Amino acid sequence: MQRRSLINTAAALIAGAALPAWAQTPTTLPVLQVWKDPNCGCCQDWVNHLQADGFQVQVFATGNAAVRKRLGLPDKFASCHTGLIGGYAIEGHVNAREIRRLLAEKPKAIGLAVPGMPVGSPGMDGAVYGDRRDAYDVVLVQPDGTGRVYQHYTGNTTGFKRTATTADTLPMVEAEVRRVDTAAGKISLKHGEIKNLDMPPMTMVFQVNDPALLGKVKAGDKVRFTAMQINGAYTVMSIEPMP
Description:
It is globular and about 55 Å long. The protein is built from 5 helices and 12 strands. Helices cover 21% and strands 31% of the residues. The N and C termini lie far apart (84 Å).
């Protein structure tokens, strides 16, 4: 009996040694605080992803741009929501797996980011996207503001074709303005299909290419706009009220 116990213990140790250190470490997770846009459904879908993985999440409906600035996270890594856990910033649709790894490894860093809103990342993987998954990186943001790839996720290109790549050829899309955030340079739009981005109808928070565009519209307006992806971020290039 004692010999069998020793064998089982040894087998368990060998199996554990085969796992990465972060996966072996049982951790009581601290509460993850999240600041998001109140009109962004994909932010809540990301929160649901984390809760399903065992995270306790405290959600604040506004303030992600201010929190991002306070945490020292450069705008080039920006997305639609900002989190804070264990002293680390979590920007955008970061996978629960990488957050657990970050808390276990404890690197010297500002935190993790998934810039923009890549389709297929947690919270951007709903049925409306079908089987589409864009390749994307989870970036470890260093104390000096630079980033390195922490984990790469391979996508697919099934059904994913951009029909326009320049502002001169972008299709006009009808939408309703849900919220204008002048301080953050963002606008929330309930929009129709954006064909050049292969994006189905939904409510989305966009950056704007020119902050002056936000002075043309207000919440509740019916508008037409164009958008494209710039450095991973979905960006409004033009917008005008509908007659």
